[in-house]
Design brief:
Strand order of the largest sheet: 5-2-1-11-10-9-8-7-6
Structural class: alpha/beta
Helix content: 40-55%
Strand content: 15-25%
CATH architecture: Alpha-Beta Barrel
Largest sheet: 9 strands, parallel
CATH superfamily: Divalent-metal-dependent TIM barrel enzymes
Number of helices: 11
CATH class: Alpha Beta
Length: 276
């Protein structure tokens, strides 16, 4: 069986108005071994000015590689969410993200079907998604990069819907990036769903949901950007770890998704206690 490793999505510094390198250093200081950077296409004012952690894919991919090496961490994957239902956006974006990941040393790119257009049918959307994933998988297979499909939007909000997207393309590059918080907010049991996808798991977003958010949103939304500190909410982290240890034959990074540095610190304390 694979190992359970600890990482963090760099969204935890979103409200600190700091650049990518600062976020990587902070994650290392907190004790994380892995980071999940966000990348974007083109140029974006806040990132260019050093007030936001996202990295442009027009930059040198070695920017990520060098920052991680300096801090003593590794990239678990890249946050490359793009609407698979909109191929005019996602086809070239996801292919570029795969090439960028291969150069910077990230083994996974994570994405979801994204918001759909108002005028396409469900069957049409799945044809569009198949086109995007087929094109991206061809690039990913050649580079040994996994594409992690995440439960997050209108079709992946239930297990059958996520499976349908996964099965659109028969490729070893296609896997599942499971999100504990999104699956819970979609009104499913995240442990049962994780067991169902364990043999296809390539990455995991460790997102906890507070009791207050659960009461207000469960069954009403398909996901949320970040959660509370792991251990402060409703997710059974011991059960999550047990499923991975017992049912996954590769190393899996729990990439914590929370909203503040303080929550990131509490999360790693809680998860390290369970892993030990």
């Amino acid at each position: 069986m694979g190992n359970v490793l600890l990482g963090i999505n760099l969204e935890f510094v979103r409200h600190d108005d700091k650049p990518f390198e600062w976020a990587v250093e902070k994650a290392a200081q907190l004790g994380y071994d892995y980071v999940e950077p966000m990348v974007h296409w083109g140029r974006e004012l806040l990132s260019e000015a050093g007030y936001f952690h996202s990295v442009s894919m027009l930059d040198d991919p070695y920017r990520i590689k060098r920052a991680c090496e300096k801090a003593g961490v590794k990239p678990s994957g890249l946050s490359t969410h793009t609407p698979l239902c909109k191929p005019e956006i996602s086809t070239e974006y996801l292919k570029q993200a795969v090439r960028f990941a291969a150069e910077c040393g990230a083994p996974v790119v994570n994405t979801d079907e994204g918001p759909k257009t108002a005028w396409t049918t469900e069957d049409e959307d799945h044809v569009l998604m198949r086109y995007v994933l087929k094109e991206a998988a061809a690039v990913a297979e050649a580079r040994g990069i996994a594409i992690g499909i995440e439960p997050h939007q209108q079709y992946s909000k239930h297990p059958d819907g996520l499976d349908r997207i996964y099965n659109l393309v028969d490729s070893p590059a296609i896997g599942i990036n499971f999100d504990t918080g999104n699956s819970y907010l979609c009104d499913h049991d995240p442990i049962e769903w994780l067991q169902r996808v364990a043999d296809r798991l390539v990455h995991l977003h460790a997102k906890d949901i507070s009791v207050e958010q659960s009461d207000a949103q469960r069954g009403k939304v398909t996901g949320t950007p970040v959660g509370c500190a792991c251990g402060d909410g409703v997710i059974d982290w011991k059960a999550v770890i047990d499923v991975i240890r017992q049912g996954v034959d590769r190393d899996i990074v729990l990439s914590v998704e929370c909203g503040t540095v303080e929550q990131a610190q509490r999360s790693i304390c809680h998860l390290k206690g369970l892993l030990s």
